């Protein structure tokens, strides 16, 4: 970028003034933590004030060791874990991780997306002291300490920035209102969304780990960027929604300034223009621009579109509409993220290309090279921008480098509104993405019920239920999407076959299967056993034990074998899954039992 742009000049001024240290996340309440050895001895939940009085808490500093931030859903409105159910699972998992009795595993779908990522070992857990941050322990709980509690809440992004481990604790235990907690219910909580977004913005190293059952902690990755807007989440206490806004604003201000300080202009522009997404549902205004001294020679009363474009270029450090930065993005690419149809119209009137695309992949956000603007809009729910692009005659069937179009992008990110908009624009629903996947299978894989329903309603002729359960379970299916497919008459006992004519998938699975003999992993195991696998088998291989319970309850057979002669019970034994499939001799009913240490509901059939 030329140093003559106001954005570059402002970034240079930050560096020359030595203000980097002042850009750290605000912390107005000490980061209290509990040493892991104290936590592992606990048998009942104690609130912050009690632990502080007994000297069980310490103020964390990274020189002491590693902090482990626990993100979880409360089991009641006024108490996080009344029966110590969640924390018992965490205790067992941590004991096994520290001793080396179990390891964090890499889910098959994560390896498929990102390759073989480094996994934490026992040394990562026992090489240095571990200090837990858990809200009920570390945030004041008594009403008389409400001011201190709010100060601690405001400091949560700072705590996350100091935490090497970020643990999503989601055992299948029952909330006081009767529903069973899951990853999906965690992801709908406003505070959990804020914590997840803070992790994405505040820390780049360390590990994100999901614990559903104690014996099977898994590595978690952030697919696609910043996650769901906290303000659109669920809050048990509605007034907490307004408290979330200033916390997010502080986080955003710090991150944007740090990106400028590092002269990372692409990610600065990316985040600056995605702020509207992040702040949805909150009354807090996002930052329109950090760059001062905008002065245009254009009169907004005579040339309103030119004025809008000039202001946008100033804010983003561009000199012209046709310019492209080192990441391969043009101004209109960033404008799509902002989801402002007036801005899109202004750029188009000033010769921006409605059929533009990024020229380089953005791997950390899983955005392929050549992603058309309509696909970018669908990915980030920029639905007003999508309509403006279509109005400007953007090519609705433009494809990215993987062969996908805006429909596949919208489906992949759960954008049901965009699916309807694109259907109205007569998009091609028969497109195939590498290695040969159509839109409906993508909908099953990314497991968003409204998106699946929109596709099934608008494009019924393109709904093929064959292997839909399998595809979903290999990727991100949950009990809601499995239920939807079963109600649509998907075959619960269908056995998977990938013929050679499905060249892409056949070759991929063949190569992974061969790799299993020399370098096994969860993904290669799945490939090795895929032929003839039933949905029940795949639910066990991929660790979706709640889906396994649902399938059994719906009549899934346990006697079927895959092409390697393995039953679901064989696979459960080989993978050491915390689930046992047995045949009850008395009445010939099937039962599924889970490890007693893992609070997954047992079912008898």
From TrEMBL:
<dbReference type="Pfam" id="PF00023">
    <property type="entry name" value="Ank"/>
</dbReference>
<dbReference type="InterPro" id="IPR002110">
    <property type="entry name" value="Ankyrin_rpt"/>
</dbReference>
<keyword id="KW-0040">ANK repeat</keyword>
<protein>
    <recommendedName>
        <fullName>Ankyrin repeat protein</fullName>
    </recommendedName>
</protein>
<dbReference type="InterPro" id="IPR050745">
    <property type="entry name" value="Multifunctional_regulatory"/>
</dbReference>
<feature type="repeat" description="ANK">
    <location>
        <begin position="531"/>
        <end position="563"/>
    </location>
</feature>
<keyword id="KW-0677">Repeat</keyword>
<dbReference type="InterPro" id="IPR036770">
    <property type="entry name" value="Ankyrin_rpt-contain_sf"/>
</dbReference>
